[in-house]
From TrEMBL:
SUPFAM superfamilies linked to this entry: ALDH-like
Organism: Gordonia caeni
Record domain Aldehyde dehydrogenase: where: 18-478
Bias type Low complexity, positions: 1-18
Descriptive protein name: Aldehyde dehydrogenase family protein
Keywords: Oxidoreductase
InterPro entries: Ald_DH/histidinol_DH (IPR016161), Ald_DH_C (IPR016163), Ald_DH_CS_GLU (IPR029510), Ald_DH_N (IPR016162), Aldehyde_DH_dom (IPR015590)
Gene3D superfamilies cross-referenced by the UniProt entry: Aldehyde Dehydrogenase, Chain A, domain 1, Aldehyde Dehydrogenase, Chain A, domain 2
Superkingdom as given in the UniProt entry: Bacteria
Similarity field: Belongs to the aldehyde dehydrogenase family.
Active site: E251
């Protein structure tokens, strides 16, 4: 773990100047300051934007192969610098070694995926003629990078999200300004250095450290914004983007349910539950935050979960494997978790394990906590927790579980545990969430061929799959007609013989055969009548 302090985002030669103000970065597990980062105000962000715009055409001109080469080099660079990255990630998040390894796995996967697939997803698309008016036309749509993309990231996975979302934007040919969370601005600076060493042209990938105002300044200067964070901030970013009429992709909060059916492998279900709720101390957008268990297996499931949670080791992570659960990022976040537990207990819930912040330590930790006798009047079942809580509710059957799982304003992810995979898939179709796993959780983020995003207040747009890179591009539709004949049927001058035929063709094409037969005489009769009326 880092003990020395690190300074982030020291502007490179010729880089935009930030203000004199600096943000102190503290290790949540030890309470010690580990570094600082500059604050970019609106003027400094505008300078970054100018540099990014100047650099982007050259980056786009490198083509898919040229860009893929840089991304593949970066994949190797990150593998070679894994120790440095793990150390800094652990220090700025206060999490355990294993959580940081999981974090590192994502960009390593994503660099290869987008290097390999960007061209395939963005190659021109042919369209078939859908009307006689476009017969003999060549119809193609093309994807062109927007130009300058703003990526705004939260603190819970500083590299996976901040850099991970930048990768498809870069692979598409955009320049990027990344605004990391003010709480975790250090690891991303290592990434910037790596990209530079791997041949990324100066100005293509830039970092604007700072708080919310810096994020707002980024939205003000970019051509498209990709935001990940809370639903509350996502609404502000969406509104600001709407004012500027730029596209926004929003990956927001969640309250992911797990449904445990009576036929489940209960040992896997309990392990999934404990891991799903406590990995990264529960601070994952895909954390499992509430549990609905069929009556027949409820007692057995709860007793297995209680045993496993009681066995978790928590504390300052000093080495790989030393503890299972790390710190909570901020004092405010610790208070959110504790307030939810207090609210649940006041309304009749029972705490079976944990239930309070860890006392007598310098860092911030919350005991992994199992709550039973919970219901939807309690905040722990309705509001995002972002902490190691397992509120477990007994349900009569799968229908009640699905109803309760859908009783939420969120719709990010969900898990169903059952031995009957077909039934699991059928129930998945009834859950209002962007991603659903059967007998699994979290691994969706490694399925880069599948779209991943939220519904309801969990977001707009998706990561991954073809849509995960096309969103960083404007679509251009090009129609190429032959240069002959000299005039088409609908050109001027209007002609009394041809116009009725045009109507016959239009109605005949979309109507029935008898309508075709009627159309021509009726059209001719209408034309004659109109001519009489007009006195011609
Ligand atoms: P926040 O919404 O508080 O912040 C996210 C980012 O937005 C930060 O960089 C923040 O800066 C910045 N920001 C704050 N205000 C503005 C503004 N007005 N304009 C532009 N940017 C702004 O989220 P957290 O960092 O607390 O992250 C936790 C949240 O992220 C949870 O709700 C979690 O569910 C969600 N999340 C969603 C994921 C998904 O894929 N759906 C993945 C991971 C997390 P600063 O922090 O410096 O103030």
């Amino acid at each position: 773990m880092t003990t020395s302090t690190t300074d982030s985002s020291t502007p490179a030669p010729g880089a935009a100047a930030s203000t004199d103000e600096r943000i102190a970065v503290v290790n949540p597990a030890t309470g010690l300051q580990i570094g600082s980062a500059p604050v970019f105000d609106a003027a400094a962000v505008a300078e970054l934007a100018a540099r990014g715009r100047a650099a982007q055409p050259g980056w786009e001109a490198m083509g898919f192969d040229g860009r893929a080469l840089v991304l593949r080099r970066m994949q190797q660079w990150m593998s070679d610098h894994a120790d440095e990255l793990l150390e800094i990630l652990q220090a700025e998040t206060g999490r355990v070694f294993e959580d940081s390894v999981l974090e590192l796995a994502y960009p390593l996967t994503a660099l290869g995926h987008w290097a390999r697939n960007a061209e395939k997803y963005l190659r021109p698309q042919k369209a078939a003629a859908s009307s006689p008016f476009v017969l003999s036309r060549r119809l193609r749509s093309y994807y062109r990078p927007y130009g300058l993309v703003g990526i705004i990231a939260p603190w819970n996975f500083p590299i996976t999200i901040g850099f991970g979302d930048s990768i498809p934007a870069l692979a598409a040919g955009n320049a990027v300004i990344l605004k990391p969370s003010e709480i975790t601005p250090l690891s991303i600076e290592v990434i910037r250095r790596g990209l530079e060493e791997c041949g990324m042209p100066e100005g293509v990938f830039q970092i604007a450290t700072g708080a919310g105002a810096t994020g707002a300044a980024v939205v003000d200067v970019v051509d498209m914004v990709m935001f990940t964070g809370s639903t509350a901030t996502g609404r502000k970013v969406g509104a600001q983007a709407a004012q500027r009429l730029i596209p926004a992709s929003l990956e927001l909060g969640g309250k992911d349910p797990m449904i445990v059916l009576a036929d489940a492998n209960l040992e896997r279900a309990a392990n999934l539950a404990v891991f799903g709720a406590t990995v990264n101390s529960g601070q994952v957008c895909l954390s499992t935050e509430r549990f609905y268990v069929e009556e027949a297996v409820y007692d057995e499931f709860v007793s297995r979960v209680v045993a496993k949670v009681s066995a978790l080791r928590q504390g300052v992570p000093v080495a790989p494997g030393s503890v299972d659960v790390g710190a909570i990022i901020t004092a405010d976040q610790l208070e959110v978790i504790d307030a939810q537990v207090r609210d649940a207990v006041a309304k009749g819930a029972r705490v079976l394990v944990g239930g309070q912040p860890v006392r007598g330590v310098t860092g911030r930790f919350y005991e992994p906590t199992v709550l039973v006798d919970v219901d939807h009047t309690m905040a722990c079942m309705t509001d995002e927790t972002f902490g190691p809580l397992l509120p477990i509710m007994k349900v009569a059957d799968a229908d009640e579980a699905v109803r309760l799982a859908n009783d939420t304003r969120y719709g990010l992810a969900a898990t169903i545990v059952t031995r009957d995979r077909a039934r699991g898939a059928e129930l998945a179709g009834r859950i209002d969430a962007g991603t659903v796993s059967v007998n699994d959780m979290l691994t969706h983020c490694f399925a880069l061929g599948l779209p991943m995003g939220g519904v309801k207040t969990s977001g707009i747009g998706t990561r991954h799959g073809a849509a995960g890179i096309r969103k960083f591009c404007a679509t251009k539709a090009v129609l190429v007609a032959p240069s002959f004949p000299n005039a088409d049927i609908h050109f001027y001058p209007a002609n009394e013989k041809v116009s009725p035929l045009l109507l016959a063709a239009v109605t005949g094409l979309y109507g029935t055969a008898s309508r075709v037969a009627r159309a021509t005489p009726r059209a001719l009769a209408t034309a004659r009548r109109l001519r009489r009326e007009l006195g011609r």
